[in-house]
Amino acid sequence: MARRKKGDAVSGWINLDKPHDLTSTHAVSRVRRAFNAQKAGHAGTLDPLATGILPIALGEATKTVPFLMDADKTYHFTIAWGVTTASFDREGAVTAESDVRPSLAAVEAALPAFVGEIEQVPPAFSAIKVDGERAYDLARAGETVELKARPVVIHAARLVGAQDADHVDIEIDCGKGTYVRSLVRDLAAALGACGHVSQLRRTRVGGFSQDKAITLEILEELLHKRALLEALLPVETALDDIPALAVTDEDAFRLKQGRSIVLVPRQVEALKARLKSGARTVTAMAEGRVVALCEMRAGRLEPSRVFHLDMSGD
Question: Exposed end of the chain (fewer CB within 10 Å): N or C?
Answer without folding.
Answer: N
